[in-house]
């Protein structure tokens, strides 16, 4: 059943012209981590599917990774920096705490002097949230015609490298999509965004914000809780249910079944989460695009990195439907339905 005539956003298409990504040079294998931590390649692979991750240099921030990916996407699309009128950047690891936004830093790096630029916070769902914000702004008025939607993260700077239950899971990277009104490019057919703030403390960085600022003079014995803390099992259970909910709701409201999709691109957090969704929904694993083995969980960057790799694989044909599924801290969850375009790269 493929009845996209009923798609929710037929009237005013916004399209993705190109994807690009960048990851830091340094690769850290599971074996390397096992050299300094009570863990093993066997545990990490069997519990997560992760084999290695890319880790930023000491002086590399989210904007540095975003800049490399954004330059590539501009080059791919033959678009000049001055033509960009909107930059929406999703990150949980901004260059600075509070302000300036990483999007403004990126705007200056790229020379996008005509762009409105701002950050959004939706953790690992951030890229899909950002895509929907940019798309809505483009649909709403004539001021925005070319947008960069960015997911950029350096989680290596906010994880406790002594905590084996979190540090093995994350990697650094950035992915970017360039949106335009080119209807022969990849169409954003539908998006679905959800939030559940009751789960805020299941995945968080407890201190350093206005709720619990770092206090000068606090005893050294009371180390600030400035790193990622997670109830892994609770997040796992939420992730499986949230992905199933988004998958079924988007398919149903667009009159589609799984068989109509070419690929499902899930947030790359844990291969076991993806396998659980596949099993419960009776979807063959080959339909899921995965690269978690090479990059680990790059949070807001994970879906655009996967889309950029899928785009470069040459495996997509014009008209193919791709469903992206995200979930993350907040808690947040989201999905976006794309139709691959003949002029997309
Ligand atoms: O973008 C969203 C981000 N977060 C997620 O998606 C995370 C969702 N949750 C998960 O992916 C899984 O819950 C984890 C991968 C985090 C953990 O897997 P699990 O199968 O739920 O393991 P567990 O937390 O129940 O721990 C099992 C054992 C524990 O040892 P004991 O108490 O049974 O002796 C842990 O201490 O595994 C131990 N363990 C480790 N052992 C070796 C935890 N981390 C490690 C490690 N190496 N890195």
From TrEMBL:
Q: Residues in the active site?
A: 124, 267, 297
| Keywords of the record | Acyltransferase, Cytoplasm, Fatty acid biosynthesis, Fatty acid metabolism, Lipid biosynthesis, Lipid metabolism, Multifunctional enzyme, Transferase
Task: Indicate whether Transferase appears among the record's keywords.
Answer: yes
Which catalytic reaction applies to this protein? malonyl-[ACP] + acetyl-CoA + H(+) = 3-oxobutanoyl-[ACP] + CO2 + CoA
Keyword Lipid biosynthesis carried by entry: yes
Region ACP-binding: start-end pairs: 268-272
Localization annotation? Cytoplasm
Entry's EC annotation: 2.3.1.180
Name its pathway.
Lipid metabolism; fatty acid biosynthesis
A Gene Ontology molecular function term of the record:
beta-ketoacyl-acyl-carrier-protein synthase III activity
Transmembrane ranges, per UniProt, are none
Give a Pfam family name.
ACP_syn_III_C
* Superkingdom assignment: Bacteria
The Beta-ketoacyl-[acyl-carrier-protein] synthase III C-terminal domain extends over: 251-340
CDD domains attached to this UniProt entry: KAS_III
User: Quaternary structure?
Assistant: Homodimer.
Q: What does this protein do?
A: Catalyzes the condensation reaction of fatty acid synthesis by the addition to an acyl acceptor of two carbons from malonyl-ACP. Catalyzes the first condensation reaction which initiates fatty acid synthesis and may therefore play a role in governing the total rate of fatty acid production. Possesses both acetoacetyl-ACP synthase and acetyl transacylase activities. Its substrate specificity determines the biosynthesis of branched-chain and/or straight-chain of fatty acids.
Q: Which family does it belong to?
A: Belongs to the thiolase-like superfamily. FabH family.
Note what the entry says on domains: The last Arg residue of the ACP-binding site is essential for the weak association between ACP/AcpP and FabH.
Protein's UniProt name = Beta-ketoacyl-[acyl-carrier-protein] synthase III
- List the source organism: Candidatus Haliotispira prima
